[in-house]
Amino acid sequence: MATLPPTSQPSAKQPPTSMSGHGFLSSPQASDYLPSISPTVVYSTAQTAWTPQELQTLHAGLTQFPADQFDNVTRYIKIAATLPRKCVRDVAFKVKALGYPSGQPTATKRMKIEPYHDSNQSSATAELEEARLAALLQDNVLAINTMRTNLLNGKADENRAQMLKFRENCETVLSALGGICTSIPPLPLQLDMSLLEDNEDSKTNSNGSKKNQ
To answer: CA 48, CA 41: separation in Å to the nearest integer?
Structure first.
């Protein structure tokens, strides 16, 4: 029986293929294969590198938002919005390094840390105040309708209570609006409050006579 020729010696185990050929380790383009950083995540340092295109955009932004019209914070925010890979701090560092003039002095005031205010709570408070004023105005509409009905039925004396309510509601609304009403021109008419004044005078006189007794 013929014997098979001896098999050739197994070849030596091939060393692991170097990944350098694919550019993952030693290639100068290694950064292209690394996980990209989201444009919204910017790590800011004073030594941040600037490309010529970014510097051109920076100079254009400084021209578009001059220091005599915008404070520093506003300028940096607007310029940083045009630079996807730079944040406001990067822009501030670069502008300072380039020796550009500062913006309006109000920037210091704007950068001051203000106490925290819950926007939701403020909104809820404003809605409650608006609902309260709307209820007062609606109450005045009902008072006017009641007074109109009393006049038609010959019951003018019963309108005094409604007029008092109407006046108190108006004073409450005007007090809540504050300075807003100062920019509104006055109405070309005046309310006839003679019935209320006569009623108040009669009450004052009656109270005075009781005290004298």
So the answer is: 14
Non-local CB neighbours of 79 within 8 Å, separated by 6+ positions: 57, 58, 61, 62, 65, 91
Domain extent listing, the chain: 52-111, 123-175
Measure the CA–CA gap between 93 and 169, rounded to whole angstroms: 57
- pLDDT one-digit tens code per residue, 16-60: 554 444 444 444 454 454 444 444 444 455 567 888 898 889 889
Is pLDDT larger for residue 206 or for residue 126?
126
> pLDDT of 84-105, one tens digit each?
888 888 888 888 887 776 655 4
Q: Whose structure tokens read 């310029």? A: 79
Q: How far is CA 107 from the centre of its chain?
A: 18
Are 96 and 62 contacting, i.e. CB atoms less than 8 angstroms apart?
no
